[in-house]
């Protein structure tokens, strides 16, 4: 534009903005962005006016307008010094508001705006056209601004009912995830060299996000925050730092792990009750440990053999510090430590055998400690899972030793009620993990395993009726844990040792599964009798049962289909917890081209790890390893950094859907029609959000049945 004609153009655009529709506002914002890009510092006289107009558009009801406004402000901040000086706090608050109710594109652009403005405030631009700023913003001030949005949503704005629909958190999850992306943009803008110099301060600040009371009010909030913190660390440390700097970062993270564990040990050993109550606040350290251990494991796995000196350096004591967390009071921390050891084993296969020896020895020595039993069994299972990725494997004798240890735990579980559940879970976890070693290891132990499975289930209908009449709540809890573990070991046997699943073995398993099905029909009555303590165990038991039945040839299970089908229909239409959306069932059933409608495109983005938390209406906060410790030895899905199993209720519904899909094609035409009529009637009888959930469950089950039917055509 010649002369000052741009000023007239800007004035006309801003006037038109007042009466423009959303499409007009969108186009005007893009036009202003182009003008700012072309005019540079010469448009300084219009900067304030454009800033005021873009501010109102950044919280527009139209997501496209918000994106355009963010792009305009991003261009404006290149020349408008006031945005990262006097207006810095206002810009931050404005961005937090823009995250409210936003979509993915808005979060990407607004986070880029916020991160860039804060980075410029910390390291001001130098060059022609940029006047000297008297005071630059300190790093701590910039990060405190981000922390205020992450922990409190900014300056106390937007307290709306929508937050209750997103899981009851006092901070809207859209805002929290937007701020997380802003952290990454902030660090990425400053660059790898800056990160290397300031990593210690940055790590301390990011981990402090987990200590805010509002960050971990519920388990869902805690999982969400942990995923956000892990995303910040993985995206920045994993991509901006070189090999040498990553090793230094791993050492720094290791020091944090050591400090956190020492603080917990001090709190647990304190005999003064007054100080002990205060010290027990250290239990919040579990979330810090989960994030640091996951990042430490990812760093070492990425470094591969280069990390050998780091693990072997006795002055740092990486292995000692990680193994010490296996005795942490929190299950989440113990699982994170076990997963970290698995990452070490994948990076350095030569460490698998020494680590297995160390963990099995400690497990034998500390068999009277509940934390040690679960912690070291998690570690052994994780290391066995790592063998799948280690071409050299392990000596067969180690498998035999671990199997003997697992069998001993199952045999002695009833001797000490304080350890019954822990030893039972540990024994079957080890058996399940051993199955991943394949038929070459398992075939010689198969007779022992079959006898163990037989001993877990009743041998006759009379035995089943007797145990129903004599058990109390705790006895049933242990029994369901034991049988769920046995079923999980069966599932792993079918997945990893298919060559051993002969007709003879199937015939020996069918009577056991028949009694398992009979028990599942009794569970509703048991849940009514014993209440909440038994519900979780019964859900896991049904999930394992459905998973096993879905893996068997349908012709072998026909005798159980009638009983199982009634249970499946009840699961899909009368689920105890209908607050969860069922959209997690649909992606696997859709054609790749249609999956875009369900947000499958997120799989191709850099932000998948945190954006997935919003896919189910923000209710779940994403999957987490503590939902199913048995996932610790399984192979990771493509794109996953750590296992993320869903909560037991959802995993059970998914297993029910898949089993229904296996059973439905084998029914006769009349029976199929009856089942579909029953589904239709159930949908009619439900109302509101519950009806939508039932519809999605039924639709997913029917689609899975059609999918299975196509395989036999």
Question: Which helices and strands, and how do they pair?
Answer:
Blueprint: H1 5-17, H2 22-39, H3 47-57, H4 63-76, H5 88-99, H6 104-122, H7 139-152, H8 162-165, H9 173-190, H10 192-208, H11 219-240, H12 243-269, H13 273-279, H14 285-303, H15 308-312, H16 318-324, H17 331-347, H18 352-365, H19 370-386, H20 396-412, H21 420-434, H22 439-442, H23 446-456, H24 461-470, H25 473-496, H26 503-530, H27 532-551, H28 561-573, H29 608-611, H30 648-663, H31 669-685, H32 688-711
Helix pairs in contact: 1-2, 2-4, 3-4, 4-6, 5-6, 5-9, 6-9, 7-9, 9-11, 10-11, 10-12, 11-14, 12-13, 12-14, 12-16, 14-17, 17-19, 18-19, 19-21, 20-21, 21-25, 25-27, 26-27, 27-30, 28-30, 30-32, 31-32
> What would you call the quaternary organization?
single chain
Biggest sheet character: none
Number of helices: 32
Low-confidence stretches: 155-169
Helix content: 55-70%
Distance, first to last CA: 68 Å
Number of strands: 0
Give keywords.
0% strand; mainly alpha; 713 residues
How would you sum up this structure, described in words?
- This protein has 713 residues and is mainly α.
- Among the domains are: 5-97 and 106-135 and 153-169; 583-711, no CATH class.
- The protein has helices at 5-17, 22-39, 47-57, 63-76, 88-99, 104-122, 139-152, 162-165, 173-190, 192-208, 219-240, 243-269, 273-279, 285-303, 308-312, 318-324, 331-347, 352-365, 370-386, 396-412, 420-434, 439-442, 446-456, 461-470, 473-496, 503-530, 532-551, 561-573, 608-611, 648-663, 669-685, 688-711.
- It starts with a helix and ends with a helix.
